Amino acid sequence: MSEELHRHNVIRYWWSKAEDSIASAERELQADSLTFAMNRIYYAAFYAVSALLLDRRISFKIHSAVRSAFHREFIKSGLIDIQWGNFYDHLFEDRQESDYIALIGFDYQYVKDRLKTCKQFLNTLKPLIFSAENIL
Does pTM top 0.85 for this prediction? Predict the structure, then answer.
């Protein structure tokens, strides 16, 4: 398998994980497992951003490096509106709190709104990945 084909396969893999995470977040929300839903919402965004960066041949394993590269490559350059950088930052903070701080909880409506916005976020990123090289 060529290196380019492998890269495309990994991009598709990360995108599939983003979609799976959204579906999981919906199930967790329906089950009223709000911290787990927030975790899945964040990971949906993280996997989508990872796919977007890999499409530009940029890859990291550390969440903070992915976040930093997303801002540098897409927000500061103006390719993506700053609202999406702010959204991703808030998801990162929500995930940090829910995973590492005891007794943190989220309001149902807050999680529901984050889920809806995350779907919009993925819809914003998808054309940047999949239109240029027809990866899907």
Answer: yes
